[in-house]
Each structure stands twice: as structure tokens, then as C-alpha cells.
Amino acid sequence: MDASNNTSDVYMNEDGKDDMVNAHQDTKNDINMEKDVNLEENIRKLEAGMMFDTIDELFEYYVNYGNENGFPVKRRSSKKGEYGEVRYVSFACSRSGKTESTSRNAFKLHPITKTGCDAKINASLFPCGKWKITSVSLDHNHELSPGKSRC
After folding, report:
1. Distance between CA atoms of 122 and 120, rounded to whole angstroms?
2. What domain range includes position 93?
3. Superkingdom, according to UniProt (predicted)?
């Protein structure tokens, strides 16, 4: 049997024995490194100047960005133009704002999730019909939990 036709590499360890397990491990590590690189490429970016066709597309993008980075998102505010169409919108981390207790029963207290978080994006509808992110603030004042986010 000719050893040159063998497609698997055989490495010799310090004892002079075949070390096929380590060769297999090296291949696995190469594959894992490739996966890590691909995951980093899939992380969404969020910056001022990004354009979207619809307000729903913009909101969906920000929700997915929030899920990847460990924070929930809400629609914060919007302003309408002179003809009644939405022209400006603000989306924010759902922990923005302050909680005012509406419960009159002291025994039915709910956990407080509002922390006054300043993370938000603002967008405007441009004459071409596209939505453009005009400002981005990623300043969270609470811990982010990417592992706990819902997908």
C-alpha cells in the first residue's frame, strides 16, 4: 500500500506515535474559527444616514438590532406633516422613560423596568419617499443581555 495515496495526514507526537486525534481537532478548530468570523460579519450596524423604504422596515431593522444586542425596542413618538402623514419618528430602548406607579394597592406592586435609558434613533421621511435615520444614540444606562433576547 502506497502511503502517498492516503488522503489523511498523520502527525507524530513526542512519543513517536500517530496523532490522528489532534489532526482532527485542528480541522475542527479551523471550522469553528470560520464560523466565528461569519457571525461577526452578520452583526447589524446602526448609524445615522441609513435609508429604508418604509417605516415598518426601519422599525423591524431596529428591533432585530436590539435583539442581537440584548435590549427590547419600542415606538417612542412620531410627528405628522401638514397633510396628516407621518414625517418624523423616534424609536427607543423600551427601558426609556420613567415609571409612575398607577397602582393604588401597595400589595400589587409590579417590577420597575424603566431606567430612563437614552438609547434611541430618530428618522425622517425624505421627499424621495425613503426613511433616513437622522440621529443615533446608543447610550444605555442598564446592562444589556444578548443571550436573553427573544428572536
Report:
1. 7
2. 51-99+113-145
3. Eukaryota
